[in-house]
Amino acid sequence: MRVALGVAGGVAAYKAAELVRRLQQEGLDVQVVMTRSAQQFIAPLTFAALTGQKVITEMFAEQSQAPANVESAIEHIAVAQRIDLLLIAPATANTLARLAAGVADDFLTTLYLATKAPVMVAPAMNVNMWEHPATQANLAVLRERGVRVVEPDEGYLACGMTGPGRLAGVEAIAQAVCELLGIRHDFASETVLVTAGPTYEAVDPVRFLGNRSSGRMGYALAEAAARRGARVILISGPAHLDRPAGVDLVSVCTAEEMSAAVQKHAEGASVVIMAAAVADFRPVAPQAVKIKRQGRLVLELEPTPDILAGLRRPGDQRILVGFAAETHDVAQHAREKLASKGLDMVVANDVTREGAGFDVETNVVSIFTRDGRQLDLPRLPKLEVAGRILDEVVRLRGLP
């Protein structure tokens, strides 16, 4: 998820650096936008070093950078469309007034008008400014529009006065962000093992048997579990995806290697989610040299290890989740797999459906659980599907 952090010009601007780090701990990608006044209190370079991204400080590029002017002029639209939250901390009295009035005279206020994402403000100012009827009226307008306000703390202020107006604590702001974005920590005590991607079974040094799995669903599950506080071990076949933040990645190629890795790590896991598309067969005798084209070729295949079948043991308290990618009779095959493998849950999809096949950003699944529940989900982004699957894991944890 992406958060645009607007930093306005007040003494509390320096606390925004700590806030960036705290948001990053939640797996959030932070884009910092600074007003001109904010730059009087803290340098943009600080935020650039923390986020690894350029800090937006102006609506338009300098005249000496004319080729970039067009890009800069529409950048607020691009940022507005890709963020999941606009957070302004600290939000000064002046910034609140401009937001309430709909003034768009810099990048931050223009971004506020351009985005459809939720908006949150954490005010910080002198106690008299905070209590002034104009400020309170502006806050009332913003609340009416749906802006979430993180109330300031009371205490000793930089101006020497005492009272409300001090920027809320970093932890309080971070918790409000997590609540608004639906980020939870209900997996903090869990170790989650996830398998992802295809496996490749060698035919010769050049060719292999594989499948069309991209690994996106498994990687989304690993990312979602990590965001919810789990220690995550991701065992991945060949996949051209970045390792999710905070996830331990174990790379494998063949079904045999994946089986060995699962056996090694599954003992310490409290939740095992087998999302990988493991090859069901492999060549009996892979060749040591490239097979040349010479008429028809017959490959003798043998079954690969059934990784799921050997996971359930008597008295096992782990939650075991399997996947079933089908082309017909989806519900029947899913229930059969649920029973035959001793699973707690099977996530099934018809890969012939639009938006539910391989190498796409969405999925359309049905979740079948050991207590007879069937949950049919509409087409959703895979990260959202992952969240719904984890919700079912939490629900199963509470069943006798």
Shape designation: elongated
Main sheet overview: 8 strands, mixed
CATH top-level class of the largest domain: Alpha Beta
Strand order of the largest sheet: 12-11-8-13-16-17-19-20
Instruction: Find the count of extended strands (DSSP E, 2+ residues).
Output: 21
Write down the Rg: 26 Å
The SS-based structural class is: alpha/beta
Q: Give the name of the CATH superfamily of the largest domain.
A: CoaB-like
Strand content: 15-25%
Mean pLDDT across every amino acid position = 90
Percent helix, as a range, is 25-40%
The tally of structural domains comes to 2
Q: What is the CATH architecture annotation of the largest domain? A: 3-Layer(aba) Sandwich
Number of helices: 12
Assign the CATH topology of the largest domain.
Answer: Rossmann fold
The oligomerization state is single chain
Please characterize this protein's 3D structure:
This protein is an alpha/beta fold and 400 residues long. It has 2 domains: 2-181, 3-Layer(aba) Sandwich (Rossmann fold), CATH 3.40.50.1950; 191-397, 3-Layer(aba) Sandwich (Rossmann fold). Helices cover 32% and strands 23% of the residues. The chain has 12 helices and 21 strands. It has helices at 15-25, 44-51, 69-82, 93-101, 107-114, 127-131, 133-144, 170-181, 216-227, 255-266, 330-340, 382-397, and strands spanning 2-7, 29-34, 85-91, 119-123, 148-149, 153-156, 162-166, 191-196, 201-202, 208-209, 231-236, 247-251, 271-274, 281-283, 301-303, 319-326, 345-350, 362-363, 366-369, 374-376, 380-381. The strands form 6 sheets. The protein has an 8-stranded mixed sheet, sandwiched between helices. The protein has a 5-stranded parallel sheet with strand order 2-1-3-4-5, sandwiched between helices. A hairpin with a 5-residue loop joins strand 9 and strand 10. Helix 3 packs across helix 5. The two termini are 35 Å apart.
